[in-house]
């Protein structure tokens, strides 16, 4: 897919690995938020995704609106709401990129029990960041279906599992999700409060989160012991020794002492 013909000045280059903290050059504060409907486009799973895309500002430095789109993967019978990195250019086809932000449903941005139909807030080139998008969410309970971690068997290694936490995930032909860390920092378990973005009444969701977050805790603990994240990942991927991440999780669970064993060890330490 060809990029629109754009001037070379006032542009910022974004690569997929930087999607989670991409900041447009010359950003200005957003002074108002309006609503806009999502347009619909259709994509094939084999659609080539540019490795690099250009964010272009108008020659007069004005802020340009970004319109959420409904992207349908026809062969997989799935759809995603996305926020394109590039604004729509008159007379040009909408450019897709691997840095397009995958949005939750418009209901996540709308007040519950509202008499109005859910709509997306207005996005601009000045606020194309995950922190801004997440700051507009008013119903975090609607985020789980969109940003839930993959099952352990879908991660090829510990490194990719950590990248989903710290950098977000790329979905080929669609775009990127936010770092799970950003979502959980806002709506995860806090003292006296349950996590508001994870379904408390869904045992499968609780199990999926516990399995995924187990490795995040392990990496952080290894890091707290004086190691870097890279060293922690290398350590656990080395211990994995070719096993799948799911098999490795089961092995580590078997090695963990039971609650009774922990109590016995604690009593032994206290005894003279």
Automatic annotation (TrEMBL):
Protein name (Swiss-Prot/TrEMBL): Uncharacterized protein
Per the record, which residues fall in region Disordered? 252-272
Taxonomically, the superkingdom here is Eukaryota
């Amino acid at each position: 897919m060809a990029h629109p013909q754009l001037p070379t000045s006032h542009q910022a280059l974004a690569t997929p690995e930087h999607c989670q903290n991409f900041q447009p050059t010359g950003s200005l504060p957003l002074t108002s938020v309006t609503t806009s409907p999502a347009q619909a486009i259709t994509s094939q799973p084999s659609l080539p995704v540019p490795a690099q895309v250009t964010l272009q500002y108008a020659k007069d430095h004005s802020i340009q609106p970004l319109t959420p789109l409904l992207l349908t993967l026809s062969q997989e019978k799935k759809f995603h709401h996305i926020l394109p990195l590039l604004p729509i250019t008159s007379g040009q086809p909408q450019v897709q990129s691997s840095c397009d932000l995958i949005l939750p449903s418009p209901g996540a941005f709308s007040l519950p029990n509202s008499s109005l139909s859910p709509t997306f807030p207005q996005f601009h080139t000045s606020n194309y960041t995950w922190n801004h998008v997440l700051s507009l969410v008013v119903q975090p309970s609607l985020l789980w279906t969109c940003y839930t971690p993959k099952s352990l068997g879908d991660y090829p290694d510990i490194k990719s599992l950590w990248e989903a936490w710290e950098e977000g995930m790329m979905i080929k032909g669609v775009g990127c999700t936010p770092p799970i860390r950003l979502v959980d920092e806002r709506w995860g378990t806090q003292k006296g409060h349950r996590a508001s973005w994870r379904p408390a009444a869904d045992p499968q969701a609780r199990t999926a989160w516990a399995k995924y977050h187990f490795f995040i805790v392990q990496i952080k603990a290894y890091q707290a012991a004086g190691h870097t994240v890279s060293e922690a990942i290398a350590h656990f991927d080395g211990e994995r020794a070719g096993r799948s991440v799911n098999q490795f999780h089961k092995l580590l669970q078997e090695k963990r002492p039971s609650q009774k064993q922990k109590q016995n060890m604690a009593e032994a330490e206290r005894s003279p």
